[in-house]
Amino acid sequence: MALFRSCFRLLVFVGVIVLAVLLLRHWMATKQYIFTHDDIAKLAKQYAGQDHEQAFSKLVVELRKRYPGHILPDEDLQWVFLNAGGFMGAICVLHSSLTEYVILFGTAIDTSGHSGRYWADISDTLVSGSFRRWKEGTTKSEIFSPGDTVMHQMGEAAGVQWTAGTWMVEYGRGFIPSTLGIALADTLFCTQDFVTLFHTFKVYGKSLLMETGTMLAEAGVF
What we know:
This protein is of the alpha+beta class. It has 2 domains: 1-30; 35-219, Jelly Rolls, CATH 2.60.120.10. Helices cover 41% and strands 28% of the residues. The chain contains 5 helices and 10 strands; from the N terminus they run H-H-H-E-E-E-E-E-E-E-E-E-E-H-H. The strands form 2 sheets. A 6-stranded antiparallel sheet has the order 1-2-3-10-5-8. The protein has a 4-stranded antiparallel sheet with strand order 4-9-6-7, with no helix packed on it. Strand 6 and strand 7 form a beta hairpin. The chain starts with a helix and ends with a helix. The relative contact order is 0.16. Pfam families: ERG2_Sigma1R. Homotrimer. Belongs to the ERG2 family. The chain crosses the membrane at residues 7-28.
């Protein structure tokens, strides 16, 4: 009897998980999104080859014009270290929600590692530097330059390498909390840089609150 109860509970648990995944997939497939991969890529390409700091400043201004209420204000923009999959870089979050994010990403040193495998489609458009990708199942790598857009499809994995001075604009669409595992694992279990961890959660939380406020305002709640 005890074995039967345990099996029944396990089946119920698995059933709930499967149902939750199916509901999430349906929601993500039918909801309206704020950004598109093409729009972010086209905008970033306009500044390819320029000094990355000047390019990013212009990009943020343009994004605020196109997507009012969806880009964090200057006082909340912050460069935060990112240690993930063995590589080290820095991110500046411009927008984040449960299903989308727009960040500035790059590195001031040569670095490489594992891309991670996500429940999200991610595109990177290079502004400066170079990006080498070694896709799973292949024996050769690809090199991308400023103006190129690199697409990382949901469920894919790759070896990644950036030269010092590589900076890019990244857009992700999918179940964004699923990307936090690899994004935070090295910080938690390797570097144990809890200051960076705090700043990461702080900026993500601010962006979620801003997005919630914008959504409620657009719905006429207040």
